[in-house]
Automatic annotation (TrEMBL):
This is Chalcone isomerase-like. Keywords: Signal. InterPro entries: Chalcone_isomerase (IPR016087). It holds the Pfam family Chalcone_3. Residues 1-30 form the signal peptide. Residues 56-183 form the Chalcone isomerase domain.
Amino acid sequence: MHMRLPVRERVLMALLSGAVLLGWAANASANPATPAPEVRSLLGQPQELGAGQFRWLGFKVYEAQLFAPQGQGFDRNGAYALEIEYARKIKRKILLKASMDEMIRIEGERSDHGQIQQKLTACYRDIQPGDRIVASPNGGNVLKFWVNGQSTCTLQHNGIRDRYMAIWLSDKARDRGFAQQVLARQK
């Protein structure tokens, strides 16, 4: 399933894709991030495992943090949450296309990509500066999404946890530095 975007949005998509190619600037702060309320409700007393900033031409696009329950470290099969706070306005269809392009880049074309894209459409929203998306797995086949603290969807699909989270957390992630920083703390 391919969407044809207007010229202005194709240019923005090209810029965002180019930014992904350049990777994130590491953001190792001395002060741990304060997790969003939905992250605290999911994980109890969460600890930050890693953080990064995604910048394009010097402008911050978003910041991301990965959280797990205090003392757990990163466990792919355990509880964790990825929180992304955006600094730029981005349309839902741009976020959706970027996610699907990355999934296809990582795993190649698969027959179920159209199904995943359709399911993700319900999870995403148009983003304004300061908005945050939280994604958290519930087992290997379920991902829960929140936008600004409101649950937007529970995506159920075979293997979706590892396939979707690979965009940020795999050895094939565009920002290997962020992935390595997080995975270095794996238990």
